[in-house]
């Protein structure tokens, strides 16, 4: 029997609760756990260090935490993955993927712009000992090297909302794993593993958490890569706090209804903006005729270039909050060239199609009419 996504969102990662005699996931805040039999624990230490999850005492919170494991199981199920590994933030998750990939000596990465500003910075500076080559999607096969360990894409991309065909990229990449940042689409609208990707990264700070009150990251992937990620996490310490894991898990239950409602409002606003003479350009996947068949709707963000002063629009909104981040229950607007993509050089921003005046709107759960009234006033 195939179980609907909305049903999974409510029940995933809660399989052990009935046996525990509870109805909501317990929050285990222990930093350490009794470890009585030292020689047996030594064996289990080795297993944790190699990324396995042995039964019994978690030993120490950086090695294992039951509250975190439950939310990992839930995300894995929603992303059609064997496993998921949670981190302290989206950037900690991406960092762990780069380190896990480099563990086998493959330090070269191919990446397609644009990507989130922090990801661009991390790749471009080679801070973690990796080397990046920026390519167009159809240049991937030609740019592969023997030491290429990962192909990195983001679709829809932050902040232009441009889409890249995951299946085409996977074909170009051949045996090299493709990592997709799926933060903007969420597993409600897109499951990259179904299209040939090997690794899915989420900033769970965004729609997965959903309420703007946690910072978290999750990687969904096969068990083999997950073991490398757990090893990296133990060594580097970017663990998710169990309280945030609980809140992330709780947010997943409402993920489908939130994302569907936000996406339908976003489609409505994109339509109104695209017919408005005060707007020079609107970026919304749902408005593009020629799209890859991989995202179920146009998504929850709309980016646009106002004809007038973009700063004035941000200053004049009253209902929408001028702030970075996205995917929350309330709408947010920001100017990528000043904020999320400020760390990317002007030339690189332009190469990625990021207009100097582009504004990115993350649509929340307010009514479309109220949001439009706010934008209409702000556009002057
Ligand atoms: C926010 C974001 C990130 C970084 O996530 P943090 O949780 O802020 O570390 C990565 N990718 C995308 C697409 C994002 O929007």
Describe what is shown at a glance:
This protein has 380 residues and is an alpha/beta fold. It has 15 helices and twelve strands.
Explain how this protein is built.
The protein has 380 residues and is α/β, with parallel strands linked by helices. The chain folds into two domains: 5-252, Type I PLP-dependent aspartate aminotransferase-like (Major domain) (Aspartate Aminotransferase, domain 2); 255-379, Alpha-Beta Complex (Aspartate Aminotransferase, domain 1). The protein is 38% helix and 14% strand. It has 15 helices and twelve strands. It has helices at residues 5-11, 17-20, 38-49, 66-78, 90-102, 117-125, 140-143, 166-173, 186-189, 223-236, 242-252, 255-274, 310-316, 346-351, 368-379, and strands spanning 83-87, 108-111, 131-134, 148-154, 178-181, 199-203, 217-221, 279-283, 301-306, 321-322, 332-334, 359-362. The strands form two sheets. A seven-stranded mixed β-sheet has the order 1-7-6-5-4-2-3, sandwiched between helices. Helix 9 (186-189) links the parallel strand 5 (178-181) and strand 6. Helix 4 packs parallel to helix 11, helix 5 crosses helix 10 and helix 13 packs across helix 15 (368-379). The relative contact order is 0.14. The mean pLDDT is 97. Bound molecules: pyridoxal-5'-phosphate (PLP). Residues 89-91, 116, 118-119, 154, 158, 181, 183-184, 203, 205-206, 215, 217, 326 line the site of pyridoxal-5'-phosphate. Residues 40-60 are annotated as: Disordered. InterPro entries: Cys/Met-Metab_PyrdxlP-dep_enz, PyrdxlP-dep_Trfase, PyrdxlP-dep_Trfase_major, PyrdxlP-dep_Trfase_small. Belongs to the trans-sulfuration enzymes family.
């Amino acid at each position: 029997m195939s179980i609907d996504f909305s049903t999974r969102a409510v029940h995933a990662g809660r399989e052990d609760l009935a046996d525990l005699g509870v109805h909501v996931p317990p929050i285990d805040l222990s930093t350490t756990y009794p470890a009585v039999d030292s020689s047996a624990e030594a064996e289990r230490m080795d297993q944790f260090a190699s990324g396995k999850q042995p039964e019994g005492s978690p030993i120490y919170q950086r090695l294992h935490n039951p509250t975190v494991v439950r939310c990992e199981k839930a995300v894995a199920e929603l992303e059609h993955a064997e496993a998921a590994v949670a981190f302290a933030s989206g950037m900690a998750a991406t960092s762990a993927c780069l380190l896990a990939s480099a563990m086998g000596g493959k330090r070269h990465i191919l990446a397609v712009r644009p990507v989130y500003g922090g990801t661009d910075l991390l790749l471009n500076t080679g801070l973690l000992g990796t080397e990046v080559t920026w390519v167009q999607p159809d240049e991937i096969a030609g740019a592969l090297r023997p030491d290429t360990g990962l192909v990195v894409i983001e679709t829809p991309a932050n902040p232009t909302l441009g889409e890249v065909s995951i299946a085409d990229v996977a074909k170009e990449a051949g045996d090299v794993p493709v990592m997709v940042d799926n933060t903007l689409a969420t597993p409600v609208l897109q499951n990259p593993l179904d299209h040939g990707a090997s690794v899915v990264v989420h900033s769970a700070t965004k729609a997965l958490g959903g309420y703007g009150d946690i910072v978290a990251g999750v990687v969904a992937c096969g068990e083999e890569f997950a073991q490398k990620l757990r090893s990296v996490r133990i060594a580097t310490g970017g663990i998710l706090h169990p309280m945030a894991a609980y809140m992330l898990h709780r947010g997943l239950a409402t993920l489908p209804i939130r994302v569907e409602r936000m996406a339908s409002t976003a489609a409505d606003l994109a339509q109104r903006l695209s017919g408005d003479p005060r707007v020079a350009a609107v970026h919304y996947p749902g408005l593009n005729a020629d799209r890859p068949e991989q995202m179920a709707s146009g998504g929850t963000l709309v980016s646009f270039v106002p004809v007038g002063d973009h700063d004035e629009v941000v200053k004049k909104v009253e209902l929408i909050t001028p702030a970075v981040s996205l995917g929350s229950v309330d709408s947010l607007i920001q100017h990528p060239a000043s904020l999320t993509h400020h760390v990317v050089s002007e030339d690189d921003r332009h190469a990625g199609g990021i207009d100097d005046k582009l504004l990115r709107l993350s649509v929340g759960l307010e009514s479309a009419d109220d949001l439009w009234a706010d934008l209409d006033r702000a556009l002057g």
